[in-house]
Amino acid sequence: MILEDLYSSKDFKQIGHELIDLFADHIQNTTLGTNPKTIRWNEPDKELSFWEDYLENEKEQDFFEEILNRTTHIHHPKYMGHQVAPTLPITALTAMVSSLLNNGMAVYEMGMSSNAIERIVTEKLCEKIGYGQQSSGFLTSGGTLANLTALLSARKAKVAHDVWNNGHTEPLGIMVCEEAHYCVDRAAKIMGLGEKGIIKVPADENFAMDTNKMEICYQKAKSEGINIFAIVGSAPSTATGAHDNLEKIQEFAQKNNLWFHVDGAHGGAAVFSKKYKGLLKGIEQADSVVIDGHKMLLMPAITTALLFKENSHARHTFSLKADYLMDAPEEDEWFNSGKRTFECTKNMMAMHWYIILKLYGEKVFDEFITRQYDLAKDFATIISNEPYFELATPPMSNILCFRYIGTHLSSNELNILNQAIRRELLEDGEFYLVQTKLNGKHYLRTTLMNPFTSMEHLNLLLEKIKNKAEKLLVKKTN
């Protein structure tokens, strides 16, 4: 094959037009709910066999259609599974621009427009949080990487010795609610803190951090010789969508000279909601904040902002120089993003944020977030009035956990039944939702991510769950 043929603009134009037509039909059929299924479930081994055979035997022209046929349709109103956005179609085009131009952004020459756009985007986000002029930030690939980077910044700012260059000389630790996202644990272990360095604060009855237990946990860790340098607030937790009390956490952090970090990967976007931004009261006092664009801000994965109250912390995390040299002019080169992030190369993700703000303004975020949070509250009201269901806790965001209970079954039997219901729904494919376990109880978990999901769809879901449960119980007794 001649390399020139691979770069044929004529072939690219033809394939591109066909693909855009295919995607346009997909968007229409999924958002309207015309497609009968949200997911066409297949067992992993069978799916692997299909693609092994396809590589050798099938026509390449069918590839994109097969991908659409064999993936989860997040734009479908009956999608209510993981915390992934039904992307705005315009962002598919910005993603294409990034893939084609392939400007890696690590140095200014390889990211002139994208580095400038990223600075504008992060400054706007800092402003929405309530940070002052001295704040700064950058975009990175996902909440996991952003949370790890924030905790590295915390260690550099709060630990007296230079761990980055000289390694650990004492046991270090962070505090976090037991219901926080697992990526915080993962970050702590990557940093070498170990199990003992992850101080878990118990959750209250609503699955948010029990702030009355912070002092007890802190003093116990100190008595064991652990130098705690940071505390993490969840906004919200992943399993239930419960928001930690950020104001009380900030007060505790200030009293004990701890770095205060907010994992707002999912709910930090509520800074754009006039109705729900109160859930984030106190976030403006955080030393660092994570917000995912690919969750509640309608962007493709993976698009995450890490924001700092003080610009110096955004610049110094990965400094290889001694602390007394940190104020050297070259350290403030915001336009060379490779100096501030784990990534030397990253995609031009700032374009997604920028084009949405340019074309639609902040109001699209306000409308979407407010609608989805309202919908969860309305869904919770319906469930609360259903004798066959119970809520885990009233929703604070668009995440809602509930379970089927309409039988005289033991706790273990109810767990088995709800697991079986979820499996039946997965194989059926009309709806897609996930599951979680709280205090030993198995719950169905919905995250209402789709702007086309209505109460009609949610009522249909409850009816379907009841029908599945009844059939499973009949099968069990036979």
Q: In words, what does this structure look like?
A:
This protein has 478 residues and is an alpha/beta fold. It has 17 helices and 11 strands. The strands form 2 sheets. Strands 1-7-6-5-4-2-3 form a 7-stranded mixed β-sheet, sandwiched between helices. The termini are far apart. Mean pLDDT is 93; it is low at 322-330.
User: In order across it, which strands form the biggest sheet?
Assistant: 1-7-6-5-4-2-3
* Average pLDDT, all residues: 93
Number of strands: 11
Which class do the helix and strand fractions yield? alpha/beta
- List low-pLDDT spans: 322-330
Number of helices: 17
Query: Rg from C-alpha positions?
Result: 24 Å
Through-space gap between termini: 63 Å
Helical percent range? 40-55%
Largest sheet entry: 7 strands, mixed
Q: Which overall shape is indicated by the principal axes computed on the Cα atoms?
A: globular
Note the run of SSEs as H and E.
Answer: HHHHHHEHHEHEHEHEEHEHHHEEHEEH
Percentage of residues in strands: 5-15%
Topology:
Blueprint: H1 3-6, H2 9-31, H3 44-57, H4 63-69, H5 89-101, H6 112-129, E1 136-140, H7 143-158, H8 163-166, E2 172-177, H9 182-190, E3 198-201, H10 214-223, E4 227-234, H11 246-255, E5 259-263, E6 288-292, H12 293-296, E7 304-308, H13 311-316, H14 350-359, H15 363-384, E8 389-391, E9 399-404, H16 411-428, E10 434-438, E11 441-447, H17 455-477
Helix pairs in contact: 5-14, 6-14, 7-9, 15-17, 16-17
